[in-house]
Specification:
Helix 7 links the parallel strand 31 and strand 32. Strands 32-31-30-29-26-25-34-33 form an eight-stranded parallel beta sheet. Strands 9, 12, 13, 14 and 15 form a five-stranded antiparallel beta sheet that branches. Strands 19-18-22-23-24 form a five-stranded antiparallel beta sheet, with no helix packed on it. Among the domains are: about 150 residues, no CATH class; about 80 residues, Immunoglobulin-like (Sandwich), CATH 2.60.40.10. The N terminus is likely disordered. Helix 1 packs parallel to helix 3 and helix 8 packs antiparallel against helix 12. It is built from 14 helices and 38 strands. The chain starts with about 40 loop residues before the first strand and ends with a strand. By secondary structure, it is of the alpha+beta class.
């Protein structure tokens, strides 16, 4: 979990430390921790904490104290935490230049588990790939014990994991495990269920009441809590099943600050609470929030070329008959976005953040090749940069970008820029001048290093004309970091959506984020960064922390939600399981992106009305898009889309609307899922859906329980899911009912 605040330079007049750290008072001019410090997750035997992830400038650390059985050592760059039997939660106090900064520590979440198989056949080698090893069979080999008995010892968090066996190079089902689930491609995966604490054992904490001096929370099965004002521990008192948290008087000196609360017992950690303060007073009116409060964001993503053609003079399709029309430039541009902002389109939808596809110059000729039908592609999408700091002339000019940002900010909109750091087009000057700045196109075994998403994820090329930059090399990383900073210094973008996050090494993200924080301080606003990673919860989460990104897209949630909301057979129980997995991984107040679709997925409506089956390889969805004219076949799909949006608008995280989803646009694989946006001649069903989504976005925007409330599942059956969000006296109960595709929000 990574909490985020845009408060810059926090004035502190004195500090009251919680029990265990004697009462001290300090008067630093400003906190040297930027934003809210992400909790430290203990892993393995030794957990390495990069000090620069937390402190924006080199700090002299006087001492480090844990209130748990953790052995601590440090050097100039890292803290080393060695622990064996730890509490579910503990606190680490770092005394730096006389100031005691407090950081929550989460105990180890993993436990031993095993896959045991008794084969009838005789195999020479068996491995397993699954959600616990990022689908990489080389990480987990099974050991043959006796006869044909094989075993793999695992160390994983409690939860359910899909997996597949590889026996003598062939993918097979586990004959010893009858529990299976559809893999979404016409086959089945086995499921490993690793049990954790029972629901009765898991503690919970709930906001109860507040005054100008204290906050009261109620709890169940909770032995103790940790409470923080920003990055400092504060006093708590237990009275029966309630805990009282003192609001520090020095909070009154800060326009925006936050109180975070975490509970635990001997078995597990509880949910967490996040409470925003304005000059030390608890905020209960959502109207007091602004775009600096990222938890209140509702995001809208448009592909620039496919949104609005605002300037006909810059329409320059690639002059090559090898490109079929769907892969050509359509004429959408930056002026078109500005016009829609001015018209009030986003205001009517209650959107306060827009994310635009890459706007850097792309090639002027045709590239790539698709077969059946035969077609090449233009760079209309923006992901083939031939420069990293020049606006594509087909999308607009520098003046157009500055006007869009100015108009957006005047209309209460934050703007994120899609930035591509992983690769460049071969025409890019950095490749033309530095052929040695890229990773190898061929692997040592002679095979081509393209689309090797998992086994060579940090070096793979996306295509033969898209060299992957060797961002492990500091000079290469610095070039791309400076190119990214260009867009938030010369221009006034409010953040980034980062392409291909998992294919880029951690050193790049650390160095970029460090410099982004410095720009944030200069501008007096927090520059938000969200990444794109397909993979396990742990892989996605490994890029989210104080020193790296603020969030990523929750694709695992989307993958489970898609069939639940699109077809009758999928059970609501798997949606609840996905929710719980996300909340335990990213926290109950995360800033992850919850999507209804994106530019890489077939449109939801195509699944929801039965036009698209669920069991096809990705290339087949693309082929359908080229060969069939997909239209909405069943109006029930509009109700399904409304329910999907009701879900995203009422769970923790940032809801994201893919352009056109608000009217129920349909389509198969790309580029059919990237049709030109439609604003006129809408059907009555499209108009009704647009209005309904507008009501949902407004309800979320106006309701503190949906922005900062706790989260509890009340009912979980095949067809019904009911959950509650509570923020002090503000309660919202949501019921999703698949039996008639309706939802209620009370």
């Amino acid at each position: 979990m990574h909490h985020l605040t845009k408060s810059i330079g926090l004035a502190i007049t004195f500090l009251i430390l919680a029990a265990g750290c004697s009462k001290n008072t300090s008067t630093p001019e400003a906190s040297k921790l930027f934003g809210l410090a992400s909790p430290i997750q203990l892993v393995g035997d030794t957990t390495v904490v990069v000090i620069a992830d937390y402190f924006e400038i080199p700090m002299h650390i006087d001492s480090v104290v844990s209130d748990d059985a953790i052995t601590i050592s440090l050097d100039t760059a890292n803290l080393y935490l060695v622990s064996k039997n730890t509490k579910p939660l503990s606190n680490l106090t770092i005394y730096a230049e006389g100031i005691p900064y407090a950081i929550l520590v989460k105990g180890k979440k993993t436990k031993p588990a095993a896959i045991r198989i008794d084969f009838k056949e005789d195999y020479s080698s068996v491995s397993v790939k699954g959600e616990f090893n990022n689908w990489d069979p080389s990480q987990t080999q099974l050991i043959k014990s006796t006869n044909n008995n094989w075993i793999a010892q695992l160390n994983v968090k409690p939860g359910k994991y899909q997996y597949k066996l590889i026996a003598d190079g062939k993918e097979i089902d586990d004959p010893s495990n009858p529990v299976t689930i559809s893999n979404g491609m016409g086959g089945l995966n086995n499921v490993l269920d690793v049990s954790g604490p029972s629901k009765e054992q898991i503690p919970s904490i709930v906001t109860e009441s507040f005054s100008t001096k204290e906050i009261v929370i109620s709890s169940a099965h909770t032995d103790a809590i940790y409470a923080y004002w920003n990055n400092f521990s504060i006093e708590t008192k237990k009275e029966g099943n309630n805990f009282k948290i003192v609001i520090p008087v020095f909070a009154r000196n800060t326009n925006r600050s936050h109180i975070r609360i975490f509970g635990y017992n001997q078995d597990a950690a509880s949910n967490d609470l996040l409470i925003p303060l304005e000059k030390g007073n608890v905020i209960t009116d959502a109207k007091k929030l602004n775009n600096s409060d990222w938890h209140s964001s509702i995001m809208y993503f448009m592909m620039v070329d496919r949104f609005v053609d605002g300037d006909k003079s810059n329409n320059h399709p690639v002059n090559d008959p090898a490109i079929l029309p769907k892969a050509q430039y359509y004429g959408g541009d930056i002026q078109g976005i500005t016009q829609k902002i001015k018209s009030g389109y986003f205001k009517d939808l209650h959107i306060n953040t827009i994310w635009v596809s890459p706007i850097t110059q792309n090639p002027i000729d045709a590239w790539g090749q698709f077969h059946d039908p035969e077609t090449k592609f233009s760079g209309y999408h923006g992901y083939w940069p031939v420069t990293s700091t020049t606006v594509d002339f087909r999308l607009g000019s520098e003046a157009d970008v500055k006007e869009m940002l100015s108009v957006a900010h005047q209309n209460g909109l934050s703007v994120l820029l899609d930035y591509v750091a992983n690769h460049v087009h071969e025409q890019h000057s950095v490749y033309q001048q530095h052929k040695d700045w890229v990773t190898p196109l061929y692997l040592p075994d002679g095979t081509m290093n393209t689309e090797r998403w998992d086994d060579h994820r940090l070096t793979t090329w996306f295509d033969t004309f898209l060299p992957t930059l060797n961002l492990e090399d500091p000079k290469v990383a610095d070039f791309m970091i400076d190119s990214a900073l260009f867009w938030v210094t010369k221009y006034d973008f409010d953040g980034f959506r980062h392409d291909a996050t998992k294919h880029i090494p951690e050193n790049f993200w650390r160095n970029l984020s460090k410099k982004v924080k410095l720009v944030s301080k200069e501008k007096g606003k927090y520059i938000y960064q969200i990444g794109e990673t397909y993979g396990t919860h742990d892989l996605i989460n490994s890029y989210i922390s104080s020193g790296m990104l603020d969030a990523q897209f929750d694709f695992n949630m989307y993958d489970k939600a898609l069939p639940v909301f699109a077809k009758e057979q999928a059970s609501m129980t798997q949606l609840a399981e996905a929710l719980e997995a996300s909340l335990t991984t990213y926290g109950y107040h995360h800033l992850m992106g919850n999507i209804t679709g994106n530019q890489d997925k077939p449109r939801f409506m195509g699944y929801a009305d039965g036009s698209l089956p669920f069991d096809l390889p990705g290339q087949e969805y693309k082929r359908i898009g080229w060969k069939q004219d997909i239209t909405v076949q069943d109006n029930i799909a509009y109700k399904k889309m409304a329910m999907f949006n009701a879900f995203n608008m009422t769970i923790p995280g940032i809801p994201i609307i893919y352009y056109g989803d608000e009217i129920g646009m349909t389509g198969a694989g790309d580029p059919d899922n990237r049709r030109m946006m439609r604003f006129e001649n809408l059907s009555k069903e499209e108009i009704a859906l647009q209005k309904e989504i507008g009501r949902l976005t407004q309800f979320r925007t106006d309701n503190m329980a949906l922005l900062y409330g706790d989260f509890t599942i009340l009912e979980n059956t095949e067809n019904r899911l009911t959950y509650k969000r509570k923020y002090f006296s503000n309660e919202v109960t949501v019921t999703l009912n698949k039996s008639d595709w309706t939802y209620t929000i009370n």
